[in-house]
Specification:
By secondary structure, the chain is an alpha+beta fold. About 35% of the residues lie in helices and about 20% in strands. The protein has a 6-stranded mixed β-sheet with strand order 1-2-4-3-5-6.
């Protein structure tokens, strides 16, 4: 069975996968089914522009049901748990370059975080308070700092 597409280049399965916790995959996808609109918006507004600029994007974490979010150590208020965030890499590209491009590209993001080994990006308004949108952070594995 062909996986449904959320946008031209991103599938539902890609945004709801959980390779490190395969026992939770079916539960995660079932619970994600009510969030297809938000997942599609995440793809169209944030991931597709990154792909257009840099080439293929590999999503390492998208939607996380409460059980998966707990299994990966996510905070309860994570936008991942509301289908509003994704973590990704761009193979062959320097993450700092991708992060800086997102910051300056005029994308409507809530947060962009340069993490050790990936980038986290989340939807902005109306899913995140206006005063907390456009936040760019760098995380070194222990502390966050403004970029």
């Amino acid at each position: 069975m062909k996986t449904p597409m959320l946008s031209e280049h991103f599938s539902f399965d890609e945004l709801t996968g959980c390779d490190k916790h395969p026992a939770l995959a079916d539960k995660n996808r079932l619970e994600a089914s009510v969030f297809t609109f938000k997942l599609s918006e995440l793809c169209h507004k944030l991931l597709e522009p990154v792909r257009a600029q840099f080439g293929p994007v590999v999503v390492t974490s998208g939607y996380r049901c409460p059980a998966l979010n707990a299994a990966v150590g996510g905070v309860e208020t994570s936008q991942h748990a509301a289908a509003e965030a994704a973590d990704f890499i761009v193979p062959g590209r320097d993450l700092v370059d991708v992060f800086e491009w997102i910051r300056g590209a005029g994308l409507d993001f809530g947060q962009v975080i340069l993490e050790p080994g990936w980038i986290h990006v989340s939807l902005g308004e109306p899913y995140r308070e206006a005063g907390k949108c456009g936040q760019a952070l760098i995380y070194n594995g222990k502390n966050y700092r403004n970029a």
